[in-house]
Design goal:
The protein folds into 2 domains: 17-268, Aspartate Aminotransferase, domain 2 (3-Layer(aba) Sandwich); 271-408, Aspartate Aminotransferase, domain 1 (Alpha-Beta Complex). The chain has helices at residues 17-23, 75-88, 99-110, 125-134, 150-156, 179-186, 201-204, 238-251, 258-268, 271-290, 309-315, 330-340, 362-370, 374-384, 398-408, and strands at 92-96, 116-120, 141-145, 161-167, 192-196, 214-218, 232-236, 295-299, 322-327, 345-346, 356-361, 387-392. Helix 2 packs parallel to helix 9 and helix 3 (99-110) packs parallel to helix 4. With 410 residues, it is of the alpha/beta class. It is built from 15 helices and 12 strands. 38% of the residues lie in helices and 15% in strands. Helix 7 (201-204) links the parallel strand 5 (192-196) and strand 6. Bound molecules: pyridoxal-5'-phosphate. Residues 98-100, 124, 167, 171, 196, 198-199, 218, 220, 230, 232 line the site of pyridoxal-5'-phosphate.
Length: 410
C-alpha cells in the first residue's frame, strides 16, 4: 500500500468543519467493517527490493513511497496527519512526538548558520529558551521582538532573515499577533512565517488562510484535549512539509507513536463541541474575574479591555480557554490554588477537559527564560505585574468553577 493511498473522504469545500472533524478520511475497514480506525503498531513494513529506499536523501517526499519504517511514517500517524491537514485546510502535515519537536523541526530544517530568526519576545518558555540560547550555538542569529507590533517586526528584519515565528495568542500574556499583517509585510521577501496556534486550534483561527506558511500545534493541548498524550504537528504546503519530514522525522527521530496518534485522533473528533463549551465558560469566567475586587487585571482576548480586542474579533471565532489574571497578593493566591482548589488542578500544562491553574511569577520567568532588559521587564510587568495566575478552563460547569474561584479569591 502506498503511504498516501488513504481516501481523504469528504470534500472540505462542501462540508462544515464540525462534520469534517468527525468524518474526514474515515472509511470502514474493508475486512471487518470496523468504523473506528485501526491502529497499525508495526514498526516495519515489508517491501520489494526495487520499492524500498535505504535513505531519505534524494527522495522528493517520503510520504509518496510505500510505508517502510515507523520512524519515517506509519499508517496511523499518516491518517492523523491527513485529518489534521483537512481541519487546517493545509496541503500536508507532519506529526511529531511533542509540540516542541514540531517547533525544533521547523527551526532546524529551515535555518542554517548565518541565517536570522525573528521570534516573539513572549512565547512558550521552552521555545524562547531554545531559540535564544541553543540556536546561536549553531550560528543562527535570533532577535526577539513584540510581534504584536508590526513596526517592531519590520525593524527586526535583516537581509539574512529567513523565518518569523509568532505565537498567537501567546503564552502566558495572551497577546495577539496580526497574522495577516505580518504575512503581508513578508510577502515576496522570501521570509517564511510560522505560527504557533496551540492556544487557538483550527476551531478559532486558521493561520494558513491568513497568509502564514506553516501552522504549528502542540497536540498535547486542546487538540487531543484529554491530558493523556504528548504530540505535535506542523502543517503547510507539501513542498515545505516534505523538507521537514526528511530532516525532522527521519534524522531527529521525533516520530509520533501509533498509539499516541490514535488517541489524538479520538480526542480531535470532539474538538468543535469541546472548544465551543470551554471558550464560552472562559468568557463567563473572565468577565466575572474582571469585576472581582481582588483582581487587578484580566488578560483575555474576549474582553473589551484586552488591548487587541478588535483584532481578536477579526482573527478569532472564539477567544480561547486560557485566561491570565493579576492579583495583589500573588504568594497567598498561589498557596490557595495549590492547596485549596477543588476544581483547578495546580499544573503547568493546558487544554484538558479538567481545569488547570498555575502561578507564573515575572521574576522567575525573567531569571529562567526571558532575561529581560530593564525596558522589556517594565513592559512585561505592565501586563503581568508581579505575576499572573494562568487558568486553563476545562469542561466543568462555569458555575462550579466560579464558586471555586470565589472561595480562592475571598
Ligand atoms: C504555545 C505552546 N507551544 C508549544 C508548546 C510545547 O508543546 P509540548 O508540551 O507538546 O512539547 C507549548 C507547551 O505548553 C505551548 O504552550
Amino acid at each position: 500500500m502506498l503511504n498516501d493511498d488513504f481516501d481523504t473522504g469528504l470534500n472540505p469545500e462542501t462540508f462544515a468543519p464540525e462534520t469534517l472533524a468527525v468524518h474526514a478520511a474515515i472509511r470502514p475497514d474493508p475486512h471487518t467493517n470496523a468504523i473506528a480506525p485501526n491502529i497499525v503498531m508495526s514498526v516495519n513494513h515489508s517491501f520489494l527490493p526495487n520499492e524500498g529506499a535505504f535513505s531519505a536523501q534524494g527522495m522528493e517526499d517520503i510520504s509518496d513511497s510505500p510505508f517502510l519504517y515507523a520512524g519515517w511514517t506509519n499508517p496511523t500517524v499518516r491518517l492523523l496527519e491527513q485529518r489534521l491537514a483537512i481541519l487546517e485546510q493545509a496541503e500536508d502535515g507532519l506529526a511529531t512526538a511533542s509540540g516542541m519537536a514540531a517547533i525544533t523541526a521547523v527551526f532546524m530544517s529551515l535555518l542554517k548558520a548565518g541565517d536570522h530568526l525573528v521570534i516573539s519576545d513572549v512565547c512558550y518558555a521552552a521555545v524562547y529558551e531554545f531559540a535564544t540560547q541553543v540556536l546561536p550555538q549553531y550560528g543562527i542569529e535570533v532577535t526577539a521582538v513584540d510581534t504584536s507590533c508590526i513596526k517592531s517586526v519590520q525593524n527586526a528584519l535583516r537581509p539574512s532573515t529567513k523565518l518569523v515565528h509568532i505565537e498567537t495568542p501567546c503564552n502566558p500574556l495572551l497577546r495577539l499577533t496580526n497574522i495577516q499583517e505580518v504575512s503581508l509585510l513578508l510577502k515576496n521577501s522570501g521570509i517564511l512565517l510560522s505560527a504557533d496556534s496551540t492556544f487557538s486550534t483550527p476551531v478559532i483561527t486558521r493561520p494558513l488562510a491568513l497568509g502564514a506558511d506553516l501552522v504549528i500545534h502542540s497536540l498535547t493541548k486542546f487538540i487531543n484535549g484529554h491530558g493523556d498524550v504528548l504530540g505535535g504537528c506542523v502543517l503547510g504546503s507539501k513542498a515545505l512539509i516534505s523538507k521537514l519530514r526528511s530532516v525532522a522525522g527521519v534524522y531527529f527521530g521525533a516520530s509520533l507513536s501509533a498509539q499516541s496518534a490514535w488517541l489524538i485522533m479520538r480526542g480531535m473528533e470532539t474538538i468543535y463541541p469541546r472548544m465551543k463549551t470551554l471558550c464560552e465558560s472562559a468568557q463567563t469566567i473572565a468577565e466575572w474575574l474582571e469585576n472581582h475586587p481582588k483582581v487587578l487585571r484580566v488578560l483575555y482576548p474576549g474582553l473589551a479591555s484586552h488591548q487587541q480586542f478588535s483584532l481578536a474579533k477579526q482573527q478569532m471565532t472564539f477567544f480561547g480557554g486560557i485566561i491570565a489574571f493579576q492579583v495583589e497578593d500573588i504568594e497567598l493566591i498561589e498557596q490557595r490554588f495549590a492547596h485549596e482548589s477543588r476544581m483547578f488542578y495546580y499544573a503547568y500544562s493546558i487544554g484538558h477537559q479538567r481545569s488547570l491553574a498555575v502561578v507564573l511569577k515575572t521574576e522567575d520567568l525573567d531569571k529562567s527564560t526571558y532575561r529581560f532588559s530593564p525596558e522589556q521587564k517594565a513592559k512585561f510587568s505592565r501586563e503581568a505585574g508581579k505575576g499572573v495566575v494562568r487558568l486553563s478552563v476545562g469542561l466543568e460547569s462555569p458555575t462550579d468553577l466560579i464558586r471555586d474561584l470565589s472561595h480562592l479569591l475571598r
